[in-house]
Amino acid sequence: VSQSRYLNKVFKIKKSTKASEKELGMGAFAPWSERVNETDNVAYQKFPQGLERLYTHKEFASGFMIGKRLYEDEQYGIINKMPEDLGRAGRTKVETDAVTVFNNAFSKDVGGVGASAIYDGKALCATDHPLLGGGTCSNLIIGALSQAKLQEGITLMRTNTKDEAGKLAIMIPDVLIVPPNLEWLAMELTKSQHKPGTDLNDINTLVGRLKVFVWDYLTDSDAWFLVDSKRHSATFFWRIRPEFYKAKDDDNFVAKYNGRMRYSLEYRDWE
Asked: For the segment 163-204, what is each residue's pLDDT rounded down to a tens digit?
């Protein structure tokens, strides 16, 4: 389960040694002011403390039992494969929890692991994220995946992603996340040397800008996401990585196989 093919490509993976983790969000400092005279005091700014975020680890477990007679008479090798499938079921749980952040990115559903409403009360993707210093920011592009929409999204992230003080954060996306339905279009838009869909010799300005990541667990066949992998704050905490156990119950002649894990995941800010 820990060797997920998707998780570490989207989230920053961290280890936790406590029942929960707290992170303090911070605002942002205003731009520096000019110091006209060499005897002028430095203009100190008050530390802009933000809201505290709490990551509470949840526990997940599952298992199965096999009677001794069933084990003795089994002829097809299926039983030996059942622990492996139990592990795959655990991986599916991790993936479906993690992808909830994106599957609910356009709503404010606050239930379950990976809930999508954030500290400002907005969905992850919205046109009106409020800033502590006043004003709002948008991180939502409306429209089907296309070259024009990708360019619009890249420009929006660079020109409209601001910190709490209103300074440009200059997010530069380097990952395009798509569901399987958009895999081939995404590859065509980002890998073709020439502009897709034309017979002209125009260069494709998106070549080399974005790494395509196809996430099989995305449920919206039209949704696509741009991510700055160096700057994002989506975090996955492993409290206990998957552990597997096997035991015998001699009173019932039953073999028991089970596993457990503990984790939490969140993102601090819409940026």
From this structure: 878 888 889 999 999 999 999 999 999 988 766 656 665 777
Instruction: State how far the Cα of 171 lies from the Cα of 228, in Å rounded to an integer.
Output: 6
CA–CA dist 106, 100 (Å, integer): 11
Are 154 and 141 contacting, i.e. CB atoms less than 8 angstroms apart? Answer: no
Element (DSSP H or E) covering residue 52: strand 49-56
Classify 97 in phi/psi space as left (phi over 0), alpha (psi -120 to 50) or beta. alpha
Rounded-to-integer distance, Cα 30 and Cα 165, Å: 6
- Is residue 101 within 8 A of residue 234, CB to CB? The reply is yes
Euclidean distance between CA atoms 95 and 261, whole angstroms: 13
Hey, what are 99's tokens? 């992808």
Q: Which of these, 67, 86, 21, 31, lies nearest to 268 by C-alpha position?
A: 21
Q: pLDDT, tens digit, for every residue of 197-233? A: 566 657 778 888 899 999 999 999 999 999 999 888 7
Q: How far is CA 35 from the centre of its chain?
A: 42
Looking at residue 196, its pLDDT comes to 65
Q: Give the integer Cα–Cα distance in Å for 246 and 139.
A: 48
